[in-house]
Structures are given as C-alpha cells and as structure tokens.
Amino acid sequence: MPEREHIHFITGRLAEFSLRAVLADLAPRADFDYSIEVLGITVAALMTPEWIARKLGQQSPPVPLETTRVMVPGYCHGSLAAIEQLVGRPVERGPKDLRDLPTHFGRARLAAQNYGEHDIEIVAEINHAPRLELAEILTQAERLQRDGADVIDVGCDPGQTWTGVADVVRALKDCGHRVSIDSLNPAEIAPAVRAGAELVFSVNSSNRDAAVDWGVEVIAVPDVPTGLVGLDETIEFLATHNVRLRIDPILEPIGFGFAASLGRYLQVRESYPDAEMLMGIGNLTELTDVDSAGVNVMLLGFCAEIGIRSVLTTQVINWARSCVKECDLARRLVHYSRQHRALPKHVEPRLVMLRDARLLEHGDANLDRLSHEIKDHNYRLFAEGGLLHIITAGLHLKGDDPFTLFTQLQQANRQNLDPSHSFYLGYELAKAVTALTLGKHYRQDQALDWGFLTRPESTAGHNSRVSPGSTTAATPDDDAETRS
Asked: N or C: which end of the chain has fewer CB within 10 A?
C-alpha cells in the first residue's frame, strides 16, 4: 500500500464543478490524493454499477494505477462487485449529497461558500397608492424594505392624475427609501421625479418624448404587451437622448402568452447583450392559483441565467403576501447556484415551507417497544406512516382520527386528563394531523417547520396549565433520544 491514499472519484458532468471545489478543500484536510473521472452522463444519480463498469472497461487501465480505492455516487444502487472485479480495488459509495463528503471523512461539512451574495435588485410596488393614506403607505414601505426590497415603487391608478404623488415620494425619501414611480402619465411622473423618484415605470412611444426632461432612469416597454412592437424604436430614442434605461419585454400570464413572453426576454437579451433588463413578475405570482415561493425561485433563476438584474414584484393577493421575502431568499439561492455551478438544493431551507425536505420515522415496532419500556405516565406523541400515535407507560394508541384516539384515551381511564392537559393534547394532535396531511416532520412541543414563516412556540406554560399533582407532558429535553 502506498503511504498516502489515492481515491478515484466517479461522477457525472453536472456534479463535476462542485465535486472539484469540495475535494480541493477536503483532500488536504483529510490527507489523501485524488483523481476524478467524469463519465458521459449528466446526472450521476442515474449511474448503475454495471454501467460504470462497462464505461471503465473501455479504457486501459480502468482507473489510475496509483488508485487505492474508488468512490461512486451515493445514489448508485446495487452491488458494486462488477466494478471491484474490474478495477481490483475496494469500491464504496459516497454520500448522496457531495457536500457531505467532509463528514464522510470525519471532517466538518463545508458551508455554502459566500452564500447570501446576490446581484438582482428587488423593486416592490405599493399598489393603488392614491387610494391609501400616507401613514399606510409608509407602513407598507417599511415592511417591504425590511423583507428585502431595495426600491419602493409608488403604483398610480391609470386614467387619472394624482396630485398628491410628490408629497408621497418626498415622505418616502425622508424615511430613507429609494423610490420609483409606476405611471405612464407625464403629469404624474414629472412631479414625482422632482420630489426624488429615481426610476420610472414605464416608457414607450406614448411618453418617451417627456422622458428626455426627467433626468432619471426609465423602464422601456413595448407599445403592446403581447409583443415587441415599438420597443426597438423607444430604446433607440432613449439612447440617442442619453436617457438611462432598463428593458422589460413584459411577462405574460399563463394561458395568455407566457411561453412566448419568456422567448421575448431571450430575444431582447440576444439583441441587446449588454443592456440592463427588468422583469415584472406579478403577472405570474398574482395571477396563478399557486403558492408564490416556487414561482419566484423559477423566475429569478431565469433572470440569473440571462442577466436580468432587477425584478418588480407585488404582494396583493393573499397567496403572494410574502413575495418580497421570497424573492430576497430566491435571489441569493440562484446567485449561489450560478456562481458555483451547484444545484440549488439543500442550500436554502427557508424556502421549503409546505413540505419538509425529509421525514424521520421511528417505525411502528420501535414505538410499540417504547410503550413497554417507559415507566412514567407522560404522553409521547408521534405522527408517522400516516398515523397518529399516543404513547405512555403500558399504552400505545394509534390511528388517523384524533377524536377517536382521544375517546380511546378516555376509555383507558388514565388519571391525568384534567381540562388543561386535555387542551394541551388536543393542540399537539392538531399539529400532528397537519404534519401528516402535508408531509411534515412532527416534533412534540416544537413548532412545525414552515421555512421563513415559522413561528416559534413557547412551551413555558405547559406545566402551569396542568393541575397540581397531575402528570405533565414531557418537555423537549425528556426522552430526547426517543422523541427527536
């Protein structure tokens, strides 16, 4: 055996860049040499041992002569005997996530390098601002900025001229906000920019002549949102008159030209490779029956790949009420993925809200054994395998209906079901049912994980809600090995 180990790593094209980055840091710390074999497949998880052996067998030698062992991806299922027989060295599976390679070798897991950086600006619109009191506008602006908005957009109502726009822009500037104005009406735009607005939504052939006098950056849009009519002419006019601009070809809703509108963004990027661009994403988040977080990640991923460095978002309809925060997290995730050529997976858990990334289950046999091993009368609650479980000394009740389970618990003649304790069990069972319904991990006395929307729970009052002499619910520290 050589004094220094040499490990030959097998991977696919998609993971190559990330694997090289991880090994460059890990190998010196774990004291081994390495080589990397990138086989002709995009996703390493699709490899089988037989396929790997066939590919390696087409070259001589199948692995470098200095190799002491071979490591294949963790998702490579099946017997590794065919590879071992071919290469004549031990072959093992690595972790399923290559970022876990350091822990596989007894070292600390690598943190996502430079995570949190981003290069997409968020413009957050306050819709129908003329209908709102100034105090409400300022409150909304503060909340939007706290959630990640870089610019507060004052949305005007078409068909009328808002005489109070300058006062609102001035008040927002006094509070430290960067401000844009959303209007095609020069009679609204001019006083807004004089009051401090730095960006104008939007400019086309109808108002581009006036834009020459505003002295601020503008968003150039087509004359008709379903195509690019007039856009080139507006861009040329603004450029000729030294008006700074960003281009927005206009995103259309699903069913009304969504795919074609994405194509127009690609077309504009090809025609204007160095131009600043913006995408207004509300036509999807506000106008589609779906939670907005996933939509925002997909759209910002598109923006990151073609160099769109600003988005306009709204959060009017209830399912899109946290769009700004979602965009703030999404822009960090897609920036990391693009910069490091790494999958945007297991990096930003705060965007995984509806379902948990993984479920941990004890198994019915272990839960049943627990009921025979514990001696106290505290109640342990579990939710797994589609069932609710209530466990205490000598008792294991399970089922999918919390009302039926509680009736069975009453019939068991337990002595600690006073009103306060019953309320506590009902509250926990309601959480457990929610976890089963959505595919979330339930932990007794702990909040369900809703990503960045999680509201921490306090268990401090549990004991005080149980009458003297009765048995309280177990705290998170009790029986941690069985309830974690």
From this structure: N
